[in-house]
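Subject: for your reference before the review

Hello V.,

The reviewers asked for a structural picture of the protein, and I figured it would be easier to keep everything in one thread rather than splitting it across files. Below is the amino acid sequence we used in the manuscript, unchanged from the supplementary table.
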Amino acid sequence: MIKLPASARLLTSALAMLLLDLAPAFADGDNAPAPATPEAAAKAATALLDCLSIPHDSSTDAVATYEAILRTAVPGAVFLDQAGWAARQAPSAASFYAGIDLAEDAAGTAVVSAIAPKSPAAATPLAPGDILLSVAPVGAPTTDGHAPISLAQARTLLANGTEAALVISYKTPSNAVPQTLTIDRIPAPALAIEDLPAAIGYVRLLSLSPDADAEASPLADALLAAIADWRNRDFIGTVLDLRGLSGPVAALPVVDAIAAALPARVPDAPLYTLTHRMVVDEVVSAPLGRAADPDAATFPMMVLVDATTDGAAERLAALFAHSLKSALLVGRPTAGNPLLSEAYPYPGNLAADRRVVLPSADLTFPDGATLDGLTPLAPDIPITDAALAEPLYEPDAETITFRARKKGTLEEEAVDRALRDRTRHDPYLRHATDILLGLRAFAR
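And here is what came back from the structure prediction:
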């Protein structure tokens, strides 16, 4: 078996396309040409090496050629081994909830950003700012708990499963010695609604997985009712949190119901057009966009996303970004899986334990943007590593006294401090609320 030097990889695309053209001759002979498929080109590659008497591993080279051709034709193609396929199939919507909100620092470490009132976590010493070291079901083996776990790991461990309680190891900002506690879990609500200081509405979707027998509308109705309530109470805007959220194809009616009820960028036009790649001329249009009323059309919404915003939640984020008015995406690029792709097994006996994910449809929005099923959504307001590590400004007592004297009241300073305390450990939420405060100041 031979191995090409790293510089030779630059020739992969050109050779792959050449092999695709020559595949009939090398794969099955000149007298009975086969279709120039990636599988035939993979066979052609090994046949060419045989003709040149170059030693090689037939099975490995065929798989490598097959994948090279697909990468050439579809640059965003995703290749999955057994572990990757299992992860893709695993349910990712939260099934249990302990009352712990998580954020990340610049290293991707899971940090507690908030504790829900009256939740199991509220009855423990766990507090915002604490760093998670391990999470495991009661009775399961745990790690030593000295190295912080990632945000993605923590979300998975806290959300999935049916255990009634978890053992959590953590450390506090003031004490590096690991602490351990047992915390109960309760069935997750579909969404958590909160009035933030400074008249900002906050809603976190915790599930986009409706039961098969349930109507698609209750979750959409609850979310839209919360937004309408904040608008009627003269709030300055809404933060919709889609971080860590996925959702299956069955949740797409919920997504459409939410989008169809909010002010559209182009009223009375389809919110998107879905064009299938595998079926010629098959085009599906979403429900028409709602005719915007003046008040709702100017009510700003910050939509929080990150690398774990996936599936139906990613489709919802795309609708907010490209079809709905007064919405901005804040955070990190999304997972790149808005339910517009399919996973295909490798042909024949090339590799029974691998699959390739290819786009199966295109989603076109009224602003001209197109989602191809593999490319992540780019936030309007990106949260960089520097932003995650940015210290929170804390005015000293003298500055607070000066402000109070100038304004004649401590009320506004108290609101500012309460908002800083709530968003202190969550840079995503802090940036979103800062934008809303800036919009309010500009409006004045």
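For the response letter, the relevant points are probably these. The first helix runs from residue 12 to 28. The first strand starts at residue 78 and ends at 80.

Happy to draft the paragraph if you're swamped.

O.
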